[in-house]
């Protein structure tokens, strides 16, 4: 008898909870969806201005190929990048011949000693 009471009481408690209908989900489903208004951008932001004829991107001058700025770690990273992405050295602009060129990032050491991005 005691076992029956242990099984019956939780059964009735759980069955009472199961009979309730969720009201929040019905009210959310009953509401119409709001329409999103069309998106407009501020004047001049959505269109690109054509570059001037004189404006051409050029690479910064490179540091000498035997510069001490490269260091062992940078040379090893360049060799690893060359092994992974060797096509970048065969095809492309002469930027790949610059000092400490990194094929994975497309950067090199410029004459100022800073890293520069190939363009």
From TrEMBL:
**What domain of life does the native source organism fall in?**
Bacteria
PROSITE patterns named in the record = PROKAR_LIPOPROTEIN
Q: What is the protein name given in its UniProt record?
A: Uncharacterized protein
Give the organism the record lists.
Kozakia baliensis
């Amino acid at each position: 008898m005691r076992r029956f009471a242990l099984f019956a009481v939780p059964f009735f408690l759980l069955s009472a909870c199961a009979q309730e209908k969720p009201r929040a989900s019905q009210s959310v489903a009953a509401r119409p969806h709001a329409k999103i208004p069309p998106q407009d951008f501020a004047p001049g932001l959505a269109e690109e201005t054509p570059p001037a004829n004189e404006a051409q991107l050029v690479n910064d001058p490179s540091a000498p190929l035997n510069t001490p700025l490269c260091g062992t770690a940078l040379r090893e990273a360049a060799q690893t990048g060359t092994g992974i992405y060797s096509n970048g050295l065969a095809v492309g602009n002469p930027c790949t011949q610059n000092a400490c060129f990194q094929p994975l990032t497309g950067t090199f050491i410029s004459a100022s000693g800073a890293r520069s991005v190939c363009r």
